[in-house]
């Protein structure tokens, strides 16, 4: 799979619709072609301190950011019809699905019921332990600023490219 997008969301609180940061990395022929990042104003700009401690994004950072509804056309353009990769795909797919539901956006063409490629599960399946993003990146020498959406999405993209290379080598 030469072309895909890797994405990563950060959330403001425990509610999945509370996306506050998103990065989408476009990969063509195994190389990162483009990186997109946006801060997103979550509903009521409401944050839990635990989330702020994890990613460092505060209500002040997103106070004047666009909400998900305004960001969605750009997101849609970047992911529609693409193979999607995330390190913990159930979390990121869940954030996207819940934000779409919260804002009553028709995104039926995206078919969010379909699972994406999950680098966590792919590496676990071949026996790498543990398979947290941090540990996978350490194992493969990938630089990571964990819980920075851009860094996490780029790391997921690189892990997927390495996985594809690994699969090709084991088939020979």
Quantity of strands, as a count: 5
In percent, how helical is the residue content? 40-55%
* Poorly predicted residue ranges: none
List the secondary-structure elements in sequence, H or E.
EEEHHHEHEHHH
Euclidean distance between termini CA atoms: 17 Å
Over the alpha carbons, how many angstroms does the gyration radius reach? 16 Å
Biggest sheet statistics: 5 strands, mixed
Shape: globular
Please report the number of helical segments.
Answer: 7
Q: How are the strands of the biggest sheet laid out side by side?
A: 3-2-1-4-5
The pLDDT mean sits at 96
Structural class, from secondary structure content? alpha/beta
Structure in a nutshell:
This protein has seven helices and five strands. The chain is α/β, with parallel strands linked by helices and 172 residues long. The protein is globular.
Helices and strands, with pairings:
Blueprint: E1 4-11, E2 19-28, E3 31-39, H1 49-55, H2 59-62, H3 68-79, E4 84-86, H4 89-102, E5 117-118, H5 119-125, H6 133-140, H7 149-171
Parallel strand pairs: 1-4, 4-5
Antiparallel strand pairs: 1-2, 2-3
Please name the defining characteristics of this protein.
single chain; 172 residues; alpha/beta; five-stranded mixed β-sheet; 7 helices; 5 strands; globular
What report would you give on this structure?
- It is a single chain.
- The chain is of the alpha/beta class and 172 residues long.
- Helix content is 44%, strand content 19%.
- It is built from seven helices and five strands; from the N terminus they run E-E-E-H-H-H-E-H-E-H-H-H.
- The chain has helices spanning 49-55, 59-62, 68-79, 89-102, 119-125, 133-140, 149-171, and strands at residues 4-11, 19-28, 31-39, 84-86, 117-118.
- The protein has a five-stranded mixed β-sheet, with helices on both faces.
- A hairpin with a 2-residue loop joins strand 2 and strand 3.
- Helix 6 (133-140) packs across helix 7 (149-171).
- The two termini are 17 Å apart.
